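Progress note, sequence design subtask.
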């Protein structure tokens, strides 16, 4: 990922909350370069609220009045336009397919780790998406996969999905929650089923475990393991069985 300079471009965005939410989506996926071309909204506290704890891209956004200014100041690389429409002039292909093709074939990404290669992903306004003029210089026109009848996505959701697809192709280091830390995982002991305790528990109830065909121990063990118990549940089962054995062996329990 260190040789790729990914930039999200929002074109003529109408609603400030979508711009803020896009900043949050970018923070989720580890990107911070946000570009606005001809935004149609003013930015107030609502955009910041929508960005929540993902303010970096919104605070450092670049705003260009039109495409002429964009092309004058932005580095040339690959432009990927996103659309939910096809038709004349729009040879739409799947975003993941396009990204994999770029990864495998584009010389700007091959063995060039010192200079970052820019990729712009373009998203159109909320009412009708990118126009023909918006995509005339794009290298690719791509769709983000959906599975329902409604193929039009919310702006920030489209950005999040596109960036997730981008990460699935080009990789990166995933975030880890506290409970997922590798160090803790390495310290965990393997889960062990309390076989001996279960046997003693059954024997205390005078159950014969020598029968092979209808062995109650084997049946109970299989039933418990089918539920895929966790390490904590194994420990709880061990405690319950031990306490039950002690109660059965206690003189008071036999009165």
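Output:
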């Amino acid at each position: 990922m260190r040789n790729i300079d990914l930039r999200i471009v929002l074109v003529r965005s109408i609603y400030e909350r979508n711009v803020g939410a896009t900043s949050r989506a970018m923070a989720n996926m580890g990107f911070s370069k946000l570009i606005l071309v001809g935004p149609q909204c003013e930015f107030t506290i609502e955009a910041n609220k929508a960005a929540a704890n993902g303010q970096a891209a919104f605070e450092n956004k670049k705003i260009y009045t039109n495409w002429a200014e964009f092309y004058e100041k932005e580095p040339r690389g690959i432009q990927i336009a996103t659309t939910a429409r096809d038709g004349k002039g729009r040879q739409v292909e799947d975003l993941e397919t396009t990204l994999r093709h770029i990864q495998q074939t584009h010389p700007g990404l091959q063995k060039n780790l010192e200079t970052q290669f820019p990729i712009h992903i373009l998203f159109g306004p909320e009412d009708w998406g990118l126009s023909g003029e918006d995509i005339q210089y794009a290298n690719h026109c791509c769709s983000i996969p959906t599975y329902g009848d409604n193929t039009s996505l919310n702006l920030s959701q489209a950005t999040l999905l596109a960036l997730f697809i981008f990460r699935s192709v080009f990789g990166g280091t995933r975030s880890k929650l506290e409970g997922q830390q590798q160090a803790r995982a390495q310290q965990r002991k393997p889960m062990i089923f309390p076989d001996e305790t279960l046997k003693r528990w059954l024997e205390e109830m005078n159950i014969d475990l020598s029968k092979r065909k209808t062995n109650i121990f084997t049946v109970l063990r299989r039933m418990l393991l089918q539920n895929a118990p966790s390490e904590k549940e194994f420990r709880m089962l061990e405690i319950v069985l031990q306490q039950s054995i002690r109660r059965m062996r206690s003189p008071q329990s036999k009165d």
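The chain has a mean pLDDT of 85. Work on this subtask will continue into the next period as scheduled.
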